[in-house]
Specification:
Layout (H helix, E strand, L loop, with lengths): L1 H16 L34 E4 L6 E4 L2 H10 L9 E5 L6 E3 L4 E3 L11 E3 L10 E2 L1 H23 L1
Antiparallel strand pairs: 1-2, 1-3, 3-4, 5-6, 5-7
């Protein structure tokens, strides 16, 4: 019995120290492309240009999304009490690096995983010739896009 207890203790300590721990900071967590699932729509996150992470600033829990649309809708639908304090990271569509979603510049003509159409850039990486909006405008437009898409689907079914 004593050997079993020691074995169990060693096994548990191995799992605790071998990466099963949650990330305890507000920087983006490692992505497991094609395996991580969008918290809202449950699709595998595959498209590297549009991934989003939201971090709860008090617990540092990371939530992953395949499109900024899913992230914004999730914040609204789940009535997240820390919504205004949420740390939101989005991939820069040109460089593939994480940037602050609230200060990003969004081109509104992209083909994104959930068809919301917003790709994020910094001033330095924004391609010329795109109509752009800021995060506040993105957050305002997303529920309207979702409503219009729902009406199209509902109308097509009837």
């Amino acid at each position: 019995m004593r050997r079993f207890s020691i074995f169990l203790l060693l096994t548990l300590s191995f799992f605790v120290s071998s990466g099963c721990q949650k990330k305890a900071d507000n920087t983006p967590a490692e992505m497991h492309w094609d395996r991580d699932m969008c918290v809202r729509c449950a699709m595998a996150i595959s498209e590297r240009k549009y991934a989003v992470q939201i971090v709860d600033p008090s617990t540092y829990k990371h939530y992953k999304f395949d499109d900024i649309g899913c992230a914004v809708l999730w914040l609204n639908e789940e009535q997240i009490p820390w919504k205004k304090q949420a740390i939101i990271w989005i991939i820069d569509a040109k460089t593939g690096k994480w940037i602050d979603a609230r200060s990003a510049i969004y081109a509104d003509d992209s083909i994104t995983p959930m068809a919301f159409g917003f790709a994020a850039y910094t001033k330095e990486t924004l391609p010329a010739g795109h109509h752009t909006v800021d995060f506040k405008e993105v957050a305002r437009k997303i529920p309207l896009i979702e409503k219009a898409n729902t009406q199209k689907v509902t109308g097509a079914i009837q």
